[in-house]
Every structure is written in C-alpha cells, then in structure tokens.
Amino acid sequence: MKQMDKWIGQNVERLRAAVEMKQAEVAFEMSEQGFKWSQRTVWAVEKGERPLRLAEAQVLAKLLRTGTGQFVTPPEAVKVVNAVFDAERLCKKALGAISGGLEDANAAHMIARSTLMDMEEEGVDLDAVRDVVPSNVVGRYEHALDRIRHYDQGGIATFLNEAQQDFARIHGWDGNRNQSDEQEN
C-alpha cells in the first residue's frame, strides 16, 4: 500500500504543478472545504507519507481540475500521458502557426494579385514593368511558394503518418477508433 501512496503523492504533486498552485494554496482551499489540511499535510500526501482519503481525493480532484483516477495512475503511464499531452499542445500550436502562415501567405498573394489587377486597369504595360523588376524578386516569391508546397505535399503528410504510428504503438490503435470501442462492448 505504501507504493500506491507514493504514486498518489507524485501524481498530486504533478497535477498541482500543472494548475500552478502552491502547496499553501491547496491547503487553504482544502481547509475551506472542511478538511484539516495545512501545507505540511499537502507535503506529506505528495511524499506518500500520508494516505489520501477518498473524500479528500474527490474534493482535491475538483480543485486540481482532474478526475480521481489521475491520482492512481502508475508513473510509467504518467510519462506516456505527459508526452501525449505535450505532443497535443505542440500540435495545436503548430496548427495555429500553419493556419496563421497560410492566412499570411494568402493575404500576401491577394495584395500581389490586387496590385497587378490595379495596374492592368490603369493601363500599365506589364511587359515593360517585367523588364525592370529584378528577377530575384520574383524568384524569392516563387521560392516561398515552393516551400509552402513542400510542406503541404510531403512534410505534413509524412509527419502525420509517423505521429499516428507512434500513437498506435502506445495505445494499440490501428487508425479505426470505433473498432476498439466495439470490442469493449
């Protein structure tokens, strides 16, 4: 049982840190809920020196914005869970960057297109302009478009396939989420 108390304590400490609460804050909030907790109590629970009671666990879980099941998760599983949460967070960040980048690229393209259309409407001889625009200016734009195409065609798809394979190794998922749900029923 002592090993379970250590796991619970490690998880309480990890979950407390995840919501950026200090031990004293947890102690205060638990005291407000009618439990006789001090900072020393929080420390003792986190070190596995004091067992966490079920009624305390239910209130503490709400306080730490989690479920009571997270308290009894073995350390090996916590590493995987943390890695998946970190990966999810970074994927969301990357998605935001990709989305923002594509919006920026589209805006840049629309500016260039609008400028060309305005010039045509004004009767500007684009062939004459083309002769005086340095070729490296157009080349830089084409290079930027090629980089976007590279990520769109190969880089992102390759990354997603590799990520899905890694997830499958961890979770035993073969790409069909419903299949594992059906087997459980």
TrEMBL record:
Transmembrane segments: none annotated. SUPFAM superfamilies: lambda repressor-like DNA-binding domains. GO terms for molecular function: DNA binding. This is XRE family transcriptional regulator. It comes from Nesterenkonia natronophila. The lineage of its organism: Bacteria, Bacillati, Actinomycetota, Actinomycetes, Micrococcales.
